[in-house]
Write a structure and sequence with these properties.
This protein is mostly helical and 71 residues long. The radius of gyration is 13 Å and the shape is elongated.
Length: 71
């Protein structure tokens, strides 16, 4: 329980350090479970851009969590 709370806080800290666009893309995909196509249309960006943002953020988040000693 405590470890989950620490991880959740660390993820929140990570997200707030991102640009608004990247944070929005991440949240729409992983918290609101939106399709990549839907996100692209709603934000008026290419699907490839959405995929790139998500891929980069997943890698950065993994490094962040390692650094924070959460995983």
């Amino acid at each position: 329980q405590r470890q989950m709370c620490i991880r959740d806080r660390s993820i929140e800290d990570f997200l707030w350090k991102q640009t608004k666009r990247n944070r929005t893309v991440f949240l729409k995909r992983y918290f609101y479970i939106m399709d990549i196509k839907e996100i692209a249309e709603e934000l008026d960006i290419k699907e490839g851009t959405v995929k790139s943002i998500l891929s980069r953020m997943r890698k950065e988040l993994a490094v962040w969590l390692e650094k924070e000693a959460v995983v």
